[in-house]
Amino acid sequence: MPINAPSQTAFLVVDDSPTIRRIVRNVLVDNGFTAIVEADDGSTALEKLKQHKIDVVITDWNMPTMTGLELLKLIRSVPAWNSIPVLMVTSEARKENIITAAQAGATGYIVKPFTPETLVEKLNKVFERIATTHGAH
Amino acid sequence: MNDSPELEALFDDIYEQVHDSTRAAQSLQEAESPNEGIPEPYYSQLGQLLRHLHSTLKQLGYDQSIEYAVGNALPDTVERLDYVRRVTAEAATKVLDATDAIKPIYYHLRLHIEQLGSAWQRCLSGELDLDQFKKLATDTKSFFHQAPEMLETLHTNITQIIMAQDFQDRTNQVLSRAIEITKTVESELIKLLVSGIPPTRKATIEQRLLNGPVVNPERDGDVVVNQEQVDALLESLGF
Fold first, then answer.
1. Which residues of B touch A (CB under 8 A)?
2. For chain B, what is the mean pLDDT?
3. C-alpha to C-alpha distances, B121 to B118, B126, B133, B140, nearest whole angstrom
4. Which end of chain A is more exposed for a tag (fewer CB within 10 A), N or C?
């Protein structure tokens, strides 16, 4: 199943584990995307958001300095970034985590360990949601 | 402060054993060398130490920390390490399964590429008759027909190898917590030991050991890692 998004879509992959960043990057490259920026925690992610035009953020939750949830809340509070979809990919599997993330404005939620199929499926869901939101404008 | 009955009982057991051994050791000593008098009885010293340690612990509330360490932290750490053992084994199996699936394809592709390559070489050198050329064309067509499926299998298994590496992220998180717990237990045990040292020895040992976490190793100069502190302490106690 391909990812239904233009190949120039720019991704920001945020995870303190270099292994996970490489895995996510691999799945994205396999699906034809090359515009991939990486950050190892929320605060470096903010720097990358300032430097690059990012279309989708894929972020871990539990990271040093600034967590994925804090990053998500910040993104939602800045008008310029407000509409960027944020997909959380995390080992935090408790219901309250998922609810908290959803309430903070996460566009999708994936629990680790994940398969490439799951990542593609959730990304497609994210793109469908953006399309609907943009259509409403 | 609540004293744990289990800890109290455990302590009394050990105390009794130590004192029995002390008496046994003393009488043995007396029987063997009645003229040399009684040297500083090691076991009795240890017994006093334990008694002192136990009462100090009760005052300081360390018994609860140790109770926590023994009752929760260590089993929790064991569980975490077991998780690491399990997921690393799973990852290894996934990777080796994938390479098992890839290898026959590699050999198959290599063989056919070699065969077709040399046949085309002979063809271009004008060494093939019409029937041989027809066979080469058929073989080549069938190779191109098979190749995409094999390449797909290669890709699937390469992806499986990549995805299997996610154990690193999970074990890293779990190991970090296990290390944290182990450090806590270790520091509690050091406090426990230090609190039970006779006052004369305590001053020097406390000075050496109670530095708290090393915030700046360069500034603090001669800092030692925890295990060395433990070793030094145990050595000074005669272990």
1. 155, 159, 162-163, 165-170, 172-173
2. 74
3. 5, 9, 12, 13
4. C
